[in-house]
UniProtKB/TrEMBL annotation:
<dbReference type="GO" id="GO:0016020">
    <property type="term" value="C:membrane"/>
</dbReference>
<protein>
    <recommendedName>
        <fullName>Major facilitator superfamily (MFS) profile domain-containing protein</fullName>
    </recommendedName>
</protein>
<keyword id="KW-1133">Transmembrane helix</keyword>
<feature type="transmembrane region" description="Helical">
    <location>
        <begin position="249"/>
        <end position="273"/>
    </location>
</feature>
<feature type="transmembrane region" description="Helical">
    <location>
        <begin position="148"/>
        <end position="167"/>
    </location>
</feature>
<keyword id="KW-0472">Membrane</keyword>
<feature type="transmembrane region" description="Helical">
    <location>
        <begin position="179"/>
        <end position="200"/>
    </location>
</feature>
<feature type="transmembrane region" description="Helical">
    <location>
        <begin position="206"/>
        <end position="228"/>
    </location>
</feature>
<feature type="transmembrane region" description="Helical">
    <location>
        <begin position="285"/>
        <end position="304"/>
    </location>
</feature>
<keyword id="KW-0812">Transmembrane</keyword>
<keyword id="KW-0813">Transport</keyword>
<feature type="transmembrane region" description="Helical">
    <location>
        <begin position="107"/>
        <end position="128"/>
    </location>
</feature>
<dbReference type="InterPro" id="IPR036259">
    <property type="entry name" value="MFS_trans_sf"/>
</dbReference>
<feature type="transmembrane region" description="Helical">
    <location>
        <begin position="30"/>
        <end position="50"/>
    </location>
</feature>
């Protein structure tokens, strides 16, 4: 996605021999990368729809869901088996718990970890391209969109390779809890590198020292993304659910907390960054803000055990 957006935006200007005559692409300079992203999403949807196996043994129609919501009592009666019908105990599916019963300390702890880690991750990923595109004299790095897209694409590729090659070994050696805490803790040096990169760019220009610090910063984000994207946290969601039938609802609760963090993170950090770049304001204000979020996420991560099996009943 970053490589597509950075390389194919404004194609009429970047590739005049191919797209220079297209008035449509001149009017809508981001149509081409958005269209390519839409094609990939559509392919993923088709593969998911036809190839993934349904986990629910009994499918419920839309009308049954509406009937169950508005006419709960009659719907429950219609779903109960008749007294003179023999039911195989193995075919009886366990009923999920109500929402209030799911708000256990374990579930709330995992939801808080998802929210705080997601808040920092979204804040960082929102300010990173803004920092790269902001002029050096205003506290950024003055990079153009193709370079920014290449950097973010390299970060994604490195994360995928590291996850496949090293994650299982690290999990077996240290456990899911320390991996999560270490990943969140990497946010502190990640934030510190922002002013360091800008200071080097001011003093020596965009040279080897700047690119080395950029590479170190992106390497540190691998551990942050690894603990965030349903790796260590997903293992805890499974054991935090009070019962197997409530696993979907438990995951829904954590995703709700995460969605709230996704709303707050980008809006808040970009606003603070814009405020800090104005003359007369503290240029490091956004970094203080990010450091505070990182420390808060680290404190919450210490509430989970080293091994998810310690939470299993």
């Amino acid at each position: 996605r970053p490589l597509t957006g950075g390389s194919l935006s404004r194609p009429a200007n970047r590739f005049p021999d191919i797209f220079g005559q297209s008035e449509l692409l001149k009017t809508y300079p981001y149509l081409l990368p958005c269209s390519i992203s839409t094609i990939f999403v559509s392919i993923a949807w088709v593969v998911t729809y036809f190839r993934l196996k349904e986990t629910v043994s009994r499918r419920t129609s839309l009308w049954e869901l509406i009937e169950g919501g508005f006419f709960r009592q009659s719907y429950a009666k219609s779903c109960q088996p008749s007294s003179n019908v023999l039911v195989n105990p193995e075919e009886v599916q366990p009923k999920p718990l109500p929402l209030r019963a799911l708000l256990t300390p374990k579930v709330l702890t995992i939801a808080a970890n998802y929210a705080t880690t997601g808040l920092f991750h979204m804040a960082f990923t929102s300010v990173l391209p803004v920092f790269h595109a902001t002029p050096i004299e205003l506290g950024g790095l003055s990079l153009d969109p193709p370079r920014i897209g290449t950097i973010l694409a390299a970060q994604g590729a490195a994360h995928g390779i590291f996850q496949v090659v090293f994650y299982a070994r690290l999990h077996d050696r240290f456990g899911a809890g320390p991996i999560h805490t270490t990943g969140v803790s990497s946010g502190i040096p990640i934030v510190i590198l922002f002013p360091v990169i800008n200071a080097l760019a001011r003093a020596h220009g965009i040279g080897l020292a700047v690119w080395l610090c950029v590479a170190i910063q992106l390497a540190l984000t691998i551990s942050l993304i690894m603990c965030y994207q349903n790796m260590a946290s997903a293992l805890f969601i499974r054991v935090a659910a009070p019962k197997r039938a409530s696993l979907g609802a438990t995951n829904g609760i954590t995703q709700m907390f995460l969605a709230g963090a996704w709303i707050i993170g980008p809006a808040s950090v970009v606003s603070v960054f814009s405020y800090s770049t104005q003359e007369g304001h503290d240029a490091w204000l956004v970094y203080y803000f990010l450091i505070a979020i990182a420390f808060f996420a680290i404190g919450v991560s210490l509430l989970i055990p080293r091994d998810p099996s310690l939470w299993e009943d």
